Amino acid sequence: MTTQLEVLQTALATAFGERISVTVALGEITLVVKADDYLATMTTLRDDASLGFDQLIDLCGVDYSTYGDGAWGGLRFAVTSHLLSVKHNWRVRVRVFAPDDEMPLLASVIGVWRTANWYEREAFDMFGILFDGHNDLRRILTDYGFIGHPFRKDFPVSGYVEMRYDAEQKRVIYQPVTIEPRENVPRVIREENYGMK
User: Fold this and answer.
1) What pLDDT, on the 0 to 100 scale, is given for residue 189?
2) Residue 164 pLDDT grade (very low, low, confident, very high; cuts 50, 70, 90)
3) Angle separating helix axes 4-16 and 38-47, nearest 10 degrees
4) Whole-angstrom Cα distance, residue 122 to residue 133?
5) Cα–Cα distances in angstroms (integers) from residue 188 to residues 27, 111, 125, in the given order
6) How would you class 82 by CB atoms within 10 Å of its CB: exposed for 0-12, middle for 13-18, buried for 19 or more?
7) How many domains does the chain have?
8) In this structure, are residues 177 and 159 in contact, taking their beta carbons and an 8 Å threshold?
9) Residue 87 is part of a domain; what is its CATH number?
């Protein structure tokens, strides 16, 4: 008896042949697509009746720079999408790597799924991944003046600047991060009479 996963694998092999890499792990299928084929592949996944992936559930950026404790030798930035076919009741994960680590650029899939709009904006904001064809690529979670991309592995844990309200200027101001040294020894240990009255 053929399982639903095997039916999906057959449909993917028929639609794409050798153009994509298909892996199955933990009962899930992952397609790895080349950046040049990304938009065409996503369109086929939606339009091919045997596949019918009519919903983009999620799209997120990934920074592989420290993956495998630094043993990763591939490209640094990827976008991973999760698609759902309501008609066939199956899901697939699609991963595409940006070919340039210095300026990660991939095609936008807004023309395929309108829901990609905010997802792509989030990937741009958090990872600095650019999407060619996105008509409104601007920050969505951080402030417009924010410097850097906070989900990149090389982004400092404390950030670069902090903001606070200045009562004298009656506005929000930005200043370099100031971190007070913190005592890491619990009070129970550092205070001899802690809890005694």
Assistant:
1) 67
2) confident
3) 130
4) 15
5) 49, 60, 42
6) middle
7) 1
8) yes
9) 3.30.460.80
